[in-house]
Design goal:
SH3 type barrels, elongated, single chain, 10 strands, 105 residues, mainly beta
């Protein structure tokens, strides 16, 4: 079970965007994720008249390491570590380590 999932509200814990919040847009295969509004870079893109793409300098989100993110806890208003807990019915759920609240409420 993944501790960070697509659609989670996360906060950056280290790097140039430290302290910024965003939503996970895409999970990559190599322990990186793409977060909305985080790790923005300027990319020079060549135009493609066949698909109607204009060329120029575009701003896009690049992947960031999963270890530099923490799931945002709305109760404490801080980033928090996530653990896995087995429930009585045998299913597993994600919980916040600081207060034991369930992440998927």
């Amino acid at each position: 079970m993944e501790k960070i999932r697509k659609g989670d509200q996360v906060i950056v814990t280290s790097g140039k965007d430290k302290g910024k919040q965003g939503t996970v847009l895409r999970m990559m295969t190599n322990s990186t994720v793409v977060v909305e509004g985080i790790n923005l870079v300027k990319k020079h893109q060549k135009g493609n008249p066949m698909s109607g793409d204009a060329g120029g300098i575009i701003t896009k989100e690049m992947p960031i390491q999963r270890s530099n993110l923490a799931v945002f806890n709305t109760v404490t208003q801080k980033g928090d570590r996530v653990g896995i807990k087995t429930l009585e019915d045998g299913s597993r759920a994600r919980i916040f380590r600081s207060n034991g609240e369930m992440v998927d409420s």
